Structure formats: structure tokens, C-alpha cells
């Protein structure tokens, strides 16, 4: 299969790097040169990667085209392009709906959306698809785990939850800074926190059916340190802040969908 990527940012680099490290039968990978450093890095990793002079060249030479430009640039990039009827297209663009993308593409393509995370480069990612697409699943499965949303509302909920990544690192940064105030070197604080949370992720992965609340209780001795910190977190409004943040992201996604349904750009 010939793959094409319009946009060569962090996610494109992660997806291409991950795919090239699999046993999948990929004949060619065509990328745009807008991000010259990223495209050059990808081309240096494999002879399969070809840097194209234009986005149209990517479309013309690909069986499956991945859209990975910024949402605010998508319309200007997509409208001038000519896609083939039935061509496979996967959008990695956050907030843009099927209707908006289909309108800007113009041709009746086989369109699906995906939310791959950077860890796909190491084959440890979780990728959400909507709607379910057999070829999409075949490509993303070797990169970690694939989850197919049944409705666009489910897809938006997955997208909203993925927005927790920045908050996760933000919390670790707060903890690391606090440890440094207590005399611990930054490199040691980060090494410690990385080890703790990597181990917790492995614990959660081993028993996916056990609820997070049950695991929290198992990791919290009654009246112990973990129980104390979580209680303070709750009382200080931490849980409500997380819910409010998720609600705000979900509302943004819903608003974008509603604007698309009204025909607004």
C-alpha cells in the first residue's frame, strides 16, 4: 500500500516511524515538505519515504492519504486538492467533522477519522477510529491498541479524554518542582516520578477490567499518605477541576460539530 501524509508534524512523524518499524507491506510513504526538518528526518530513516513538492503530489501517489494539518489551515489546504472517487482518506485533524472535511475535499472519498497518540512510534499507542475502518485498524493495530467509536459522540469523548496528556505532564512538573524545593535534583525527581508512574501504568494494564477507583483504594492504606493526598486533592476542588476541563473540551468539540451541521465554516 502507498501511504501519503499531508502535514509533517509530531503525530505524522510518530505514525510514520511506527509503521516503518512493523512488518506491514508498505510500498511507499509520501510526505509533504512543509516541515522540512521533520520530512528530512523521515526520509533519512527509510528509502520508502519520498518528500513531495506539493500536497497534490501526495494525493496523486497515495492509496491512503492522512490529513495532518492544523485545523485552522485545513480548508485552505484541502479545497484546491483533487482526490479520486473512493480514495481512502484518514483525518488526524482535531475538531474537524466529517461533514466539513467532506465538503472541502469535494470528491466522494472513503473517509475516517483517527486519534493516534505519540506513543504509536514505540508501538505503545492507543488509537481511536471513527467510523470503524478495516484498513485503518490493520495499520494502527501493530502500533499498539485500536478502539473504534460507535458514534461521533463517543469519538468526541475519546478526543476530550486524550486532552489530559498536557495536564498529566503538568501535574508531574508541579510534583518535580516541589521535590526540588525539598532538596532533590531535577534529574533525580524526574527519574523517580517516571519510574513510579510507569509502574502504575503497567499495573493498570495487567487488569483492565478493574476500575480505577478500586485500584486507587488498593494503593491507599486507610489514613495513610496516599489516602491523605487524595482527600486534600478532592477537598481543594481537584476532581471538579478535572471534570470541568473535560466538559469544556467536550463542549468545544460539540460546538464544532454543530457549526458543521449548520453549514458554517
Q: How would you describe this structure to a colleague?
A:
With 265 residues, the chain is an alpha/beta fold. It has 2 domains: 149 residues, NAD(P)-binding Rossmann-like Domain (Rossmann fold, 3-Layer(aba) Sandwich), CATH 3.40.50; 85 residues, no CATH class. It has an 8-stranded mixed beta sheet with strand order 3-2-1-4-5-6-7-8, sandwiched between helices. α1 packs parallel to α2 and α7 packs across α12. The two termini are 33 Å apart. The mean pLDDT is 92.
Task: From the structure above, extract its key features.
single chain; 265 residues; alpha/beta; Rossmann fold; 54% helix
State the secondary-structure class.
alpha/beta
Share of residues in helices? 40-55%
CATH class category label of the largest domain:
Alpha Beta
Which residues sit in consecutive blocks of at least 5 with pLDDT less than 50? none
What is the radius of gyration? 21 Å
Q: What is the overall number of helices?
A: 12
Gross CATH architecture of the largest domain: 3-Layer(aba) Sandwich
CATH homologous superfamily identity of the largest domain: NAD(P)-binding Rossmann-like Domain
Count of distinct structural domains: 2
End-to-end separation in angstroms reads 33 Å
Strand order of the largest sheet: 3-2-1-4-5-6-7-8
What fraction strand? 5-15%
Shape: globular
Amino acid at each position: 500500500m502507498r501511504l501519503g501524509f499531508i502535514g509533517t508534524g509530531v503525530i505524522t512523524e510518530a505514525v510514520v516511524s511506527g509503521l516503518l518499524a512493523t512488518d506491514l507491506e508498505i510500498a511507499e510513504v509520501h510526505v509533504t515538505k512543509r516541515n522540512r526538518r521533520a520530512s528530512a528526518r523521515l526520509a533519512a530513516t527509510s528509502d520508502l519515504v519520498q518528500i513531495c513538492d506539493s500536497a497534490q503530489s501526495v494525493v496523486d501517489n497515495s492509496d491512503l492519504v492522512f490529513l495532518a494539518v492544523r485545523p485552522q489551515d485545513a480548508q485552505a489546504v484541502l479545497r484546491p486538492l483533487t482526490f479520486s472517487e473512493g480514495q481512502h482518506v484518514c483525518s488526524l485533524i482535531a475538531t474537524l467533522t466529517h461533514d466539513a472535511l467532506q465538503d472541502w475535499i469535494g470528491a466522494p472519498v472513503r473517509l475516517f477519522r483517527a486519534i493516534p497518540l505519540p506513543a504509536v512510534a514505540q508501538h505503545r499507542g492507543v488509537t481511536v477510529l471513527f467510523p470503524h475502518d478495516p484498513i485503518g485498524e490493520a495499520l494502527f493495530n501493530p502500533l499498539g491498541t485500536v478502539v473504534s467509536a460507535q458514534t461521533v459522540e463517543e469519538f468526541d469523548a475519546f478526543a476530550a479524554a486524550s486532552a489530559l496528556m498536557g495536564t498529566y505532564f503538568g501535574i508531574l512538573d508541579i510534583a518535580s518542582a516541589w521535590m526540588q524545593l525539598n532538596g532533590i535534583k531535577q534529574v533525580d525527581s524526574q527519574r523517580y516520578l517516571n519510574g513510579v508512574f510507569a509502574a502504575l501504568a503497567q499495573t493498570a494494564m495487567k487488569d483492565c477490567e478493574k476500575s480505577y477507583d478500586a485500584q486507587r483504594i488498593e494503593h491507599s492504606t486507610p489514613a495513610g499518605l496516599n489516602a491523605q493526598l487524595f482527600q486534600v486533592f478532592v477537598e481543594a476542588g481537584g476532581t471538579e477541576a478535572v471534570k470541568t476541563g473535560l466538559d469544556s473540551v467536550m463542549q468545544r468539540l460539540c460546538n464544532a460539530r454543530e457549526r458543521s451541521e449548520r453549514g458554517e465554516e
